[in-house]
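Intended use. Records like the one below are meant for learning the mapping from a protein sequence to its folded structure. Do not use them to infer anything beyond what is encoded.
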Amino acid sequence: MKRLSKFKLLLVVVVALIVISSTMLIGCTPFKAAPQGISEDTREFTKIKDKRMYAEAKDYKGYIYKNGDEAFCFRFKSPNIEENKVYPLVIFLHGLGDFGSNNSSHMYRSLIDGVAQNAPEECFVFMPQGVKNYDWTDTGILTGKGGMDKLYNECLDLLLENYPIDKARVYLTGMSMGGQGTVWQATQHPEKYAGIIPLCGWYYLKGVDEMKLKNLENIVDKPMKFFHSRNDNAVDFECSKKVVEKLKSLGATNIEFIEFDEPLHDITPLVYCEKELWQWLFSQKL
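Structure written out for the chain above:
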């Protein structure tokens, strides 16, 4: 009986390892099989457990960008394109914990609904999903693992080249790690963005002592609206407050800091539901 029990236990372990390995292979397969450049992600995207996400959004097609051995997935929404017309582009950068390879866990319903219900005109929407443990900087300033800057910008440049996107109206927004990424990307590539909306940005490590941004002077003339809750339960409110104060000290004038009292970190539902915000954003041009 003991030998049989040990055999059953071994069998369970083997089966479990096979299942885990198969799952890992399934997750990696689209990246390994993908051609270089941008290609369609043919997986079916269905509802996931996180109620904040809208993975099954049919208008947001799945794609993979690959350069050499490096790759990431993203979702992309196109408007009803008319000939000889260009459209704004909205880009959303997700927060820590939403990265991966399922092309679903970064699909914030609040952003998708905000565009659908409040954008004053049709637009493109680009929602990249960062590689696991990679942030939106060049070297992984926040995560210490790696950064999406190179891959993200290579892919964005291809989208700008191949779709009728109005290059004077590219707008960047993001939350938490993506809030930091929004400011970081704008400071490093200011020529690309007409306006930015960072939410609950994770700009400091070790409390609020060490700022993880540089070249803030590059965006002092850029239209900006920052959002954060005073009672944020994940990223200190002082993070946004100090960055806004620093930008103002450098000469920024087209900047606003909107504060909430709700005890929330994910304030995207409070922000993206505001029609006036979208009207303001879409009025900005390079």
